[in-house]
């Protein structure tokens, strides 16, 4: 699966994904400061299948249903690498289990 990590996530987070996923950051693609609608359009043009973000409001701000991508929202107390790294295993599992869901919310484990 080809995934894009939103600007609100640490770039080093992509190292936590397995080889079955092609993961790029917004910076890798040169898409910094793009508005959400434009970003989603660029993702489709470039064959992305999922956007990973911490923006919980994106699903309400954009008509996600008109885009053929998954929106994966990380629900964590902060966007620090050490907080998000453990969530990646859970994210990968949920993407496999929830194949038909367009919006997947992945919550951090309570400490």
Topology overview:
Blueprint: E1 2-5, E2 22-25, H1 26-29, H2 36-45, E3 50-53, H3 58-61, E4 70-75, H4 81-97, E5 103-107
Parallel strand pairs: 1-2, 1-3, 3-4, 4-5
Describe the structure.
The chain is an alpha/beta fold and 111 residues long. Helix content is 32%, strand content 21%. It contains four helices and five strands; from the N terminus they run ββααβαβαβ. A five-stranded parallel β-sheet has the order 2-1-3-4-5. Strand 4, helix 4 and strand 5 form a beta-alpha-beta unit. It is globular, with a radius of gyration of 13 Å. The N and C termini lie far apart (30 Å). The mean pLDDT is 90.
Overall 3D form: globular
Put simply, the count of helices is 4
Overall mean pLDDT stands at: 90
SS-derived structural category? alpha/beta
Approximately what portion of the residues adopt beta-strand conformation?
15-25%
* Main sheet makeup: 5 strands, parallel
Element order, helices and strands?
Answer: EEHHEHEHE
What's the β-strand tally? Answer: 5
- Low-confidence region ranges: none
